Amino acid sequence: MITSTSNTRVKNVMQLQKKMKVRKEQNVFVIEGAKMLQETPRQLLREVYVSHSFLEKGEHRDLLKGISYEIVDDRVFGQMSDTSTPQGILCVVTQMHYTIEKFIKREQPFLMILEDLQDPGNVGTIFRTAEGAGADGIILSKNCVDIFNPKTIRSTMGSIYRIPFLYVEDLGEVLKVLNKNNIWTYAAHLEGKQMYDRENYTLGTALLIGNEGNGLSAQMAKKASCLVKIPMEGELESLNAAVASAILMYEVHRQRRENE
After folding, report:
1. Which of 1, 7, 36, 70 lies 20 to 30 Å (CA to CA) from residue 245?
2. Share of the chain above pLDDT 70, in %
């Protein structure tokens, strides 16, 4: 049993929790909780740590059958955890990587494109909604929050493993690739002339969502195939990025379901 925070592996996990650079160098990230362990493909598991008290429950021991793990003193585990109420189990997991071909080779792809989103909760929620609405993948600008940030990982609630994603240096270049592959890009924008539910999303479709505070940049808005507007009553000027994404994604889902 590991009983000291001076342990090399403990210190490494603590660094992985805090620093994107360390996660990137080691090509791993950290998950916490029994639910996330159940969601994680076994071939991606690198290391598993459990607190001493976690093993006191029979169902927890059953969960770990066939898995190698390291027992950690509860006090030390609390230091390793990124949450204020540790769940007693955390794992180091291999990062997933995808290519642009994964996104464009599908029949009539349905994609999300995120520009500079900074809130882990928003990005995680968009991943969950994308899975629910049947999206094929998510493309993120290089300035978006790190998907492997512990807060983002928690917010995806497992969708991180089922929705392909790709960080890109230049979203403009990506839009050119999508255009060449007959994928129309629709930007949610206050200057949209057409209401979002009046467009046809049954063909290749990519939805653009901008930064929480500034919205989509003027540069990206100009490069989109079409600007669409979500109607808002009262004095509202904008919606939360995850909410706007959900509205648009489920309209795509509705149209495609009815077109089957």
Report:
1. 36
2. 100
